[in-house]
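Researcher: Here's the sequence for the chain we discussed earlier.
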Amino acid sequence: MRTGAQILADILVNNGTRFVFHMPGESFLSAIDALGEYRDKVTAISCRNETGMAVMAEATGKLTGKPGICFVTRSPGATNACLGVHTAYQDSSPMIMIIGQAGQFETERDAFLQYEDFPNMFAPMAKWVAQVDRAHRLPEIVSRAFHTALSGRPGPVVLVIPENVLNEECRAQDVAPVQATLPSPSQQQVDALFDLLVKAKKPALLVGGTGWGETARQQVQDFAEKNKLPVVASFRRRDIIDSRHTCYVGELGIACNPNIIPWLQESDLIISFGLRLGEMNTIGSGFMIGFTLFDAPVPRQTLVQIHSGIEELQRVYQADLAILAAPGPMAAALDRMEPLAAIPWEQWTENARAEYETFSATDNCPGPVDLAGIFRWLRERLPANAILTNGAGAYAGWSQRYYQHYRLHTQLGPVSGGMGYGLPAAIAAKLHRPEATVVALGGDGCFLMNSEELATAVKYQVPVIVLVINNDMYGSIRLHQETVYGGRDLGTSLANPDFAALARAYGIFGAVVNNTEEFAPAFEQALETNGPALIELRINPEAINTRFTLSSISGKNHG
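Model: Thanks. This is the structure I predict for it:
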């Protein structure tokens, strides 16, 4: 006989769960207590807000390829955690959020019990939402949750477990650990892809999405190298291909090299591998306007679309060849093919690579703190396995342009555009990769969204380094005001604390950088500390973008 809480703990441990992120709540205390029996295998990380907690679970899924696990309690906790679930869905990150529901005998009563209809609440933002009404069904339903989170297009699952079910005793049979079901291409589809490639003059390979492993990554790089095929990474997935690879030519999305847009529009074959052809990956003409990079619904170019989720194939764009396949099986199939005998686009690839190198080396950062130089210094100073995290904001464009990723799973950023992502994601990354240097980037507005998780980093002695890029404004929204609304600043100016003093109030290292020369010594000192550290970079408000200044765009409509 076991309680529902003990059954749940056994399932999580059997599936290799190493960390469970939670905000303590009475509705699932029995589950946390049951996990305490496995202290040598799993650690329950108590966070300071459900938003940051859910981001840690989402970042776990993105980094490890296994579902990140988090527990929340009832209505206040579950509603706070919505951003993490939304991000997991938009970013295709495997994640399981378990909600401790009010006891079944207390439902539908308006009391402090905080009951909510969670299946209806989370249905639009999760792959599957289910409530477990009997303890003996936990192995069946939790196993299905793992399968659902991992299979097809990965994403979040929400399980609602009433308090009385966790306390109920029963006999239940354990199930084997879950293995993801990965779709594979047929040989006929691979042959058809190569037939299209043989006919091309100016092809481009777009890579992105989740589900990539080291082998698949290397196979795709080898495939590109053998066929001199230019490779473009999707938005915030630059780590899928080594930035030093001679076939890597840039990234899609916000703050991309503007020259890559007409270059892609000139191509005659687009091979979209793993990424969703949504708004962020199809920004073309105009200011951050999606679905303009290619004509919709019928692109001018021949389109090959490869994705593990059948719902993504033919969703917006009509593909000439649609292949249901996960990155691993598809990359293996490409690797088995002999290289093409004739490659007429070699100069096309070399020109694009030269353009990328020029764009990555050209400076445009006004003020005493040179962000371009700082990120170039970081890419030389940090080891190849260092992990950079970031949230949403104009500040992220500086690392996007000037920092390079050499290994897989060294970039964690929200495709969803959720602010406050950097710090909690960095905490999760450092817990899972303690040997790696982890740097969290945040704008002054972005960082304060989840800054309370500094307390979590302090409690568990997670030595992440936080870089707060402070320009006293919500930069990306200010860009919209400047380009669309004649520069009228309404609601985007910020009143900020002394961020370094805030760090010191938590008992950790805090420093302020007012000019470029101060950064390297401060960063070296941060590396030498035994715990978390924070460096505030006070930048000129003019340095709002890597391509233009704030004053240069006022009242103008820029492409």
